Fold each of these.
Amino acid sequence: MPFLDIIVFPGLLFLLFLAFFCEWLDRKAVAKLQNRVGPKHTGPEGILQPFADFIKLLSNEDIIPAAVDRIMFSLGPILILTLSLMPLFLIPIAGSSALVWFEGDLIFIMFVMTLRIIITFLSAWSSTNRFSMIGGMRVILQMLAFEIPLTIAMTGPAISARSLSLSKIVQFQASEHLLLLAQPLGFVIVTICLLAELRMVPFDIPKAKTEIVKGWFVEFSGKKLALLRLTEDFELVLAASLMVSLYLGGPIGPWQTQSVLYFFTKLVICILILSNLRALFARFRIDQALKGAWKYLTPLALIQVILVELMPMVIP
Amino acid sequence: MSTFRIPFGPQHPALKEPINFTFKVDGERVVSVKLRLGYVHRGIEKLAEDRTYTQNIHLVERVCGLCSQAHVICFSQAVEEILGVEIPARARYLRTIIAEMERIQNHYMWLGFTAHEMGFETLFMYTWRDREIALNMVETITGKRVNYGINTIGGLRRDLTAIAVNPVKRGLDQLEDRMKYYKKLCMTEPTILKRTVGVGILRPKDALRFGAVGPTLRASGIKRDIRFDDPYAAYEEASFNIITYDGCDVASRLLARCEEVFESIEIIRQMLDNLPKGKVRVRVPSQVPQGEAVSRVEAPRGENLHYLRADGTDKLARLKMRAPTLANLLPLCKMFENMNIADIPMIIAGIDPCIACAERMTFIDTENRSTNSWTGDELRKYSIGWYEER
């Protein structure tokens, strides 16, 4: 039944729990790497902590400063949440085709991700705080630098699969081979760019706590902050599942089997990769991050695409 | 985009203590900076005038949580100078040991704090975990982790027991190992280098002109250390190097502090090996004869200066303290020139600020919501008047 699919599995409820689980996993992994304990008391090994944080934030007072643009400020968090949830329906989770899929949904995912960042900038600007404005500007600068190598690198799998649909790319990997084996460089570029998209260390420049006080987050409180925190979890799931679908074959297991468990295992591995990177570095300065993206990532992404085109000619 | 002002403090995640910088920024670039102190004035100098010398030991210890030993040594030395007391050799050695341990734990803490400022949470967690070794060592000797309460005028209140020596030596080995690793990390990790090299430049000329002290000054290539220039406690008997770097930036300050830890460990080892036997305290009268004394100590953050005037009673007439952070604030403003917003926390962290030590007076007119500070002349006039009335 499509209705049940959308609401329960692999739709809204499943994604919500997955998001909370991923936040817990990320927090716990980083805590282990940093020699800390991490969440511990809510539920077994603190697995319910993200959920408890969410409920607690929902009950907090929601302050709207006098100077803000009320409409954009209130609408911002809801729009950002919707826009980060929407692409998840296009990810093949349970089977080799997603809940919704059409030719060109990869382009659509990219478009929605860009749109989300523009909304982020608008809500940062509408909160009329000096720290938010600097944060919002950094968000846009970072997007300009990292969206381009990300998009170029993501065309690599699309060219191999001869399709712009994520589900088709997964099906291609089921019948041929995992794209990670053919395009390891593309996987690395996509991972780095997604780290920047997620605004994780070393690319947490737009919300650098010690520099600009959480940047564009600073004026949001209560329900809005809860929604924004949830958005970050969804973004983490989205980033990891993009890595899984594009390069690791989504829910495809060995011997042509398909199961959500395979998807889940791969997702956990990808999140651990992201968490590990998060714990390894210090934060870049915005100019250094942009320089790196333009000077190294974009040319490398182009080289990867050229290699994808040339490979079939060399190895028939 | 035109310039606008961003406030940095008194409440800001990058600053653990209240101080206010108002930065004028053009996009991401700092154009100018205005500094304002006066949020945690505690009136300790005034408070000291109402207490006996023994009570003041404990008050002075609480000027700063991290350089408590430096302040106490400085104060006791001033009193001992007026009294004309020579403290036992064993007490001098033990004071040196505790002062150096304080330097080690302070530099470990600072390294973690700086890592936190640049977003390197993992290094922050690791250094603070290892700092516990240093704190446990101090606890083994003095019984407390901070504000040791072991000093008194004329020596120490407690002796070092023989049982404590071995754990301390073991701790020193561990700390040396860890710091070697962190130093290597600071020299090779690309993200750390990107954030520190060439950031917060303070040329040697400016460092001298604005009166920088401590590791900040030494990282600008100037060899100046009170422990060497004007030895106190048992530093004359110790052999150690003064660490200087000529990079003049945050990276130099980072490495200078890392190397200072090695020197401190070396000093403690020498002291423990050559510890003289005997008493740790001489009894002193509770009343101090009339006189004046200035005492200087190299605190972990730089030169610490106490001026003391005694008037023959059991209470002091005037105590003036100049904590190292105050001396480093003017050079700090110089370092911000042409830097990015992202560099601000790194530069502030670079001087190892301890604002509560550096506080001066501000008047706040609550009706007009305006503030004004006294100039040096006004303060002088007021103080002359106050003492004449007395």
Amino acid sequence: MSNFFTSRLFFISLVLIVIASTLPLYVSGYVLGLLTVAFYFGVFAMAWDLLFGFAGEVNFGPTFLIGVGAYTAGILNAQFGWSVYLCIVLGASASVIAGLVLALPALRVRGPYFGLTTLVAVLMLQNFIVVFADLTGGEIGLTIPDVISIDAGTNYWIALGFMTISAAILYGLSQSPIGLVLQASGQDPVQAGALGFNIVKHKLAAFVVSAFFSGLSGALLVFYFGTASVGTVVDVAVGVNVIVSAVLGGRRTVLGAALGAIFLIVAGEFLRPTGELATFIVSAVALLVVLFFPGGFLGAALSREARS
Amino acid sequence: MRVFQILIDGFAISALYALGATGFTLIFGVSGVLNLSHGAIMVAAAVAAWAAASVLNVGTYAGALIGVGVALLTAFATYFAVVKPIQASRRIPNEEKEIFVLTGTLLWGIMIQEVIAYFFTNNAKTVLPIVEGVVEILGVRTPKNEIFTAIVCCLVIALLWLLVNRTRTGKAVLAASMNPRGVTLLGLELTNIYIVVWAIYGILAGIAGVLLGMFLGVSSYSVGPLTASAFSIVVLGGLGSVSGSLIAAFVVGYLETLTAYLVSPAYRTIPALLLLVFVMYIRPQGLLGRR
């Protein structure tokens, strides 16, 4: 941990954050809005990488945790008129509970079975939202009366600050002894268990942390958009984007996941003139990265630095 | 009357699910690959059959053949462009290959889906059925196409069984699923077996896709749900167990039909999902799984 503060990665991140925090002074509201969404997405991807990169669990349902947080916060605000901040806290708590409920049966199974359990969780949540349309707004989505702020700059700073704090906590956790035990139990659970580590407890902890940040970010995103809908926070396609971001940026790097998410959202916007082909191009680029640079952007950069 | 209706409709749907899931489970059993572009390959077959029959006017039989051919080509493309490079890659550690194959085929499936959406729009397409008309069975008006679908599915599955259990190639495939190393020691090239399996898979997925296109119609939106349903049927039956997948396909097919008729079509998929979660909890290896 101590050598992290003197490492090149730390300085690069610091410079990037300083530059990013001054952006509202000279770029348009449109760019800020785009980056705000990208930052919340970055937190989704980082939280996912903690499970996938370190605990070695393929979570196909990141949007289950995100959706529970987002919809809990949205429903409490829209139907009961509770204050925004209380709703955000409750949304994150609901997501942690959902993470526990999902993790208990899911951790009994491994590999593809685990992936399917998480995928089913998303499909169930989607069905639930459509069936209880009175409460959730159904397929049309839920309109939320309150927002955190209407100023693009303020929203941007909140998102940037939130992403920075989340990144610091998640990265710190991944480099801590807990992160190392997680990594060990992901790679060889039998041996890690034989060394006396409680694998289930560590994985459960990873699940709870991942759920907390996913839910919190989902709730914040809902109050930024002013609406919660299946298409923006629950749909499997959103989950695929989270996964693609994390893989693009580099698994097991945490910070890379945020880079991947920002790249994905900004690239999607640049490719907008190509219309329907935008998704195709992004997926093709992601597939090429998976095939030729399995370590992702940051993984490739870091291994080059380690070699030199 | 409703009992017969559910029995007949459920059978056709279940047979179709079984056909779609068999190839999927075969690939997993032999090469340990979970192909998440499955739905995309099925939709590609159906859309190709639709385009050939309705746009190029080549006739229904030729159209269906073209659909199956396209699925075969797409399956080979999946293997050679995505799965094989990942399996052969030295930069990916062995224990992580499974995860990379999942991610890679998922992305590949999205690419196929987007290409279909780009050239043929997102609109639903119904392939012209090979047999038309309606017959009355036990007082239920049944489209002949539905009976045709069920018969073809059962025939193809029976042929597959014969191929796997009664021919030399099939026995090699079976052996590879039991012990890949043993097969190579006997002097059989594992890569050739994989190619045979992917060919069988492509044909099965193609037939299933074309039949689905005739029976229910497809659009590029059906890619995700089709993959998810094949995945859940295969896991429910036990990964790699073909007979388990067949049983699971009928359980899921009838459960969905029952819910659609007795409760509401909107809740169609929910009981099957609940059952899946329940089975995973008490029996994680699935109904007939080996692990």
